[in-house]
Amino acid sequence: MPLQIDNLTLLLLALFLALLLYSRFSRPSPLVHPLLLGKQSEVSAVRKEGETGVYRSFATGQGTPLVVRPAGALKTAQDIIKTPPSKEPGAAVPRCILDTSITDEALAEILRILPLGLRSTFSTLRKATPESPSSILILLPPSRTVSLPLLLLALKAPPNCPLIILPSPHLLTAALTAKEHPNPGVIIVHESLAEDVIEQAWEDLSGTCGVCIFGDPDRMRKGAVMAAKEKGMDVTWWSDLWDAGDDAKREELPAAGHADVHSYFYSETSTDPAIVKVTHLNITAGIAGVLALFPAEKRPSGSLRDVVASCVSLNTPFGLTVALASVYSGAGFRLIGRKEQTWDDIIDDPAGELTALMDKAESQPKPTILFISSKHHRVLLERLHSSIKYRPFVRFGVRQKADGLFAGHVSRGGAFDEWSFGLARELVLGGVAGKQLRAVVVVGDAPPSDILGMSHVLLGLPLIRLHPSFYSTGPVFVSHYYDVQSQTDWANLWHATWTKLEDEVERIEGKGADTTEEKKRAHVGPPASNVEVVLRGVGQGWDAQDGAGTKTKGEKEAPIKGEVWVRGPGVVSRLGKETSDG
Q1: Strand partners, 102
Q2: What does pTM read for this prediction?
Q3: For residues 237 and 212, is the Cβ–Cβ distance under 8 A?
Q4: Burial class (CB in 10 A: 0-12, 13-18, 19+), 438
Q5: 534 in Cβ contact with 542 (< 8 Å)
Q6: d(Cα 61, Cα 120) in Å, to the nearest integer?
Q7: Could you give the residue range(s) of every CATH 3.40.50.12780 domain in the chain?
């Protein structure tokens, strides 16, 4: 009997073939080759007893000089803003820097006037020399509304006048009497502490230190200022520096060298605070490390009208470097945090902080790159999930995202993504995760590894995990930009992953038992691009031949434990002690 094929059979065969070809070729290609994620660090061939080998980023490799600056022209922090300003397209367009709209030309003029105004107002700064420097102490609240003076002085301070940056007023006496750095020649202080600081400066430094008051537009502290002037102290308001700089004789101030001290930072511990010294070389190396987080086409850019929003305080070396890197790249910069100009403890409100970024009343541009904490990341996922979990067909969108993630790919766009997640991203927390967002970096404690998949699905973006240190201007560990690997249960992505996230929320808020073990935390990646890392004190049980932890039959391999030591051009010097980050 001859084989007969009717039209219905042909139609079904054609449909089957079409589905087969679609499933074969519709899966997206991975964002990065899997081999690059298999070995992200390079270890040295030799090691010392009791230590591991020296680890470097695989992209840097062993024997290669570590990068000390992102470009040859950037030798010091004073080179971040070009003078005269750049004539490149977009340079004349205002950008948002700490909620202030300003062009590069206006910023360059401010940075020209500021050192002249300080030198003409305060004689101690005018007399500073390389052999006898005088420092500028900055005591401002950790508020996004009063951080501009710190950033301006970090960009252009008078010559031979390094900054002393305090995170708390409790450290003022220690900073005024410390022998590790030059005595302050002037204190930039918020008006709420003006009287106390003037009195303390008079007692500790016998009136040789001036005071500049910031945040007193109505001159409410005039009585304290006049009383201090009668004693012979130099006291003025921040707004008066601009007139003094305009009236001062135009002169070319000496340029700083790459080895000159840029600033001193105090840790937040009030009992025995650590003091670190940051040079201009540390700053430029930190900027190079921050920009190396991103592929060349994904870096912050003025041409893309990027705005970087960071939750890391400018009172830390890494937080200040993120701000300087944003300004250098031509992007805007905003701080995530409290608006209140106070040092008082305020209830943690990560949701409110993210929503404040999108406040339409302030008319500020939306952030395109976020440096957030794990708490901000967690509350963002919570709100996104609550917004979309009852939407129709959302499971099809999740399934499509899961297929892409399984292939090493995640992106925004497409009908399912727009229908399932697009509206929620535009509405949740003011739209902080909307269409404009193109990069998210979690700084500090990494989120649990088994919710990374849900993060990639909800945000439609890779999640960069970064580990900073008080002893480094740049990142110490950072995951690959395109690393979307996770321990997510793909077979039950929606329910299983979200249940674990709720357990993590309860653990953080103290409502339930600690169900998340330390080993379930997501990794923070290999050493950063210009950092070397070694583990010391690993113990005698560590196997020197294969570089693995010891184990017996039937047991899992024991993790290597020890103290993390870092080295590189971005690692700063701790005054009085050897630098470590254990």
Answers
A1: 95
A2: 0.89
A3: yes
A4: middle
A5: no
A6: 49
A7: 104-281
